[in-house]
Amino acid sequence: MAKYEKWLGAGLGWVVTGNPLGGLLGFLAGSVKESQSKANDSSKTITDFEVNLIILSSYLMKIDGKISNEEISFTNRFMNAHFNENFSEKRAEILKHCLEKEYDLNVVSEQLRMYTKQTTRIQVIQFLFDLAISDGELSERENYFIFKIAGYLNINDIDFRRIKSGLTSHAFVETNSSYQVLGVNKETSIAEIRTTYRKLVLQYHPDRNNHLSEAEKKKLALKLQQVKEAYEIIKQEKKHQ
User: Fold this and answer.
1) DSSP letters of 196-237?
2) I want to staple 181 with a disulfide (CB 3.0 to 4.6 A). Which of 146, 168, 169, 230 is the partner?
3) CATH number reported for the structural domain that contains residue 208 in this entry
């Protein structure tokens, strides 16, 4: 997740008490009040930036009518990697809550647009792309949703296309996700992983799937790229063990 390092402090000045998102405040109030009573600096509280990111995540997960465990896991891991890990359980609760409710995307987008730099907003879109393909594919609805959010955040078409074109290069930078892509675990030997990798390459190779439609071929091409990237990441990790 190195590509996100520059944005870690982007929202730490926003505390939840300033977030005009209606019913979500009631859900958060108890835990936030308790957290603030223990420490006054905002790095010890859940921030508006985190809340807004979780709301965007929940909308994206629901947009194609199915919520995958991979998407939920990706979001929780991402948030824990970039924000105060002491609030991991509370953020997971917020995500669960947001998956069951609807909040105003205009408010979320307005806050992000007003209180973050352009570089941070670009990385928000990168995060949404990474989340969208964490379950193996980018649907048309997901792509359109991200495009719409990019417009709300004043990100131009050139930047949007640049972010999208690089999504397969960054989407599985987490080693844990790489193991999931190949369907193996950290205890699996490199020999077994190599065998699994070769089987997946054959399974997704275009020469073996000429009977499929162009749309289906594109999905397989994306999966094949993800498999290759995952294997390279795991190989590098195994070298240092």
Assistant:
1) HHHHHHHHH-GGG-TTS-HHHHHHHHHHHHHHHHHHHHHHHH
2) 230
3) 1.10.287.110
- Please provide residue 191's backbone torsions phi and psi, each rounded to the nearest 5 degrees: -65, -45
Q: Which residues have CB under 8 Å from 43's CB, separation 6+? A: 12, 84
Asked if residue 45 has pLDDT above 90, the reply is: no
Closest CA to 226 of 189, 191, 201, 206: 201
Contact (CB, 8 A) for 14 and 120: no
Q: Which domain holds residue 229?
A: 175-239
Mean pLDDT of 123-133: 89
pLDDT tens, residue by residue, 132-154? 888 877 888 999 999 999 999 99
How many Cβ atoms from other residues are within 10 Å of residue 58's Cβ? 24
